[in-house]
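G., the chain you wanted modeled:
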Amino acid sequence: MNEVSSLEGRVALVTGSGSGIGRACAVALAHEGVRVAVGYRGNKDGAQETVALCDGSMEFNIDVASTESVAGAFEEIEQALGPVEILVNNAGMTRDGLLMRMSEAAWDEVIDVSLKGAFRCTKRALPGMLKGRWGRVISVGSVVGTTGNPGQANYAAAKAGLVGFSKALALEVAAKGITVNVVAPGLVETDFIAKLSPAARDALMSQIPMGRPASAEEAAEAVRFCARAGYLTGQVIGINGGIV
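Predicted structure as tokens:
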């Protein structure tokens, strides 16, 4: 269907949706009538709180750094809800440090979760999307994938990698009714920001032309748009208040 689509009755998996942007994405999709698989790794309580906000949703334990865990979670989702038609690759992590002091383990772990995790989930979701000739792959990137950020070479590399991954895949599956896009937030209002000193918060805000961080719901609104739009693919949507 090459038009703005009704999402009623579709099945989505949102990884890392026990809190923050992932939770907001799950709620936004549920409001469209989507049956949401709330993916989590360690935050089961958070996942259950997300489920309580989303009619027709269920939580599923999924470690995107494990091929076996991804395979098992997808089997459970397919049995409980049906094939995943909308995949939101939101799970990620940081292990910050200047490159001169960064261990290979810190590099590998961030790449494995934030970039290869999207590869694992997307590869597993594609057969069902191809069979149904409809699908949405939406990865949550970051403004640092474009701008870089001191102390985050691993995270910036992973998020930049999501852009290349998504653009290549978009070309591979465009004729099959599947779109592939990236939503790249800048600074998002989180508990981390709330704990900053007024001086530190002001320093961060000074870098944003709009003078404030995004809410998780604002980032999720872009994800919902990507899920509905049938003629948008291979794009990076920046939700960064004008930083880029």
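Residues 11-239 form a domain with the Rossmann fold fold (CATH 3.40.50.720).

Shout if anything looks off.
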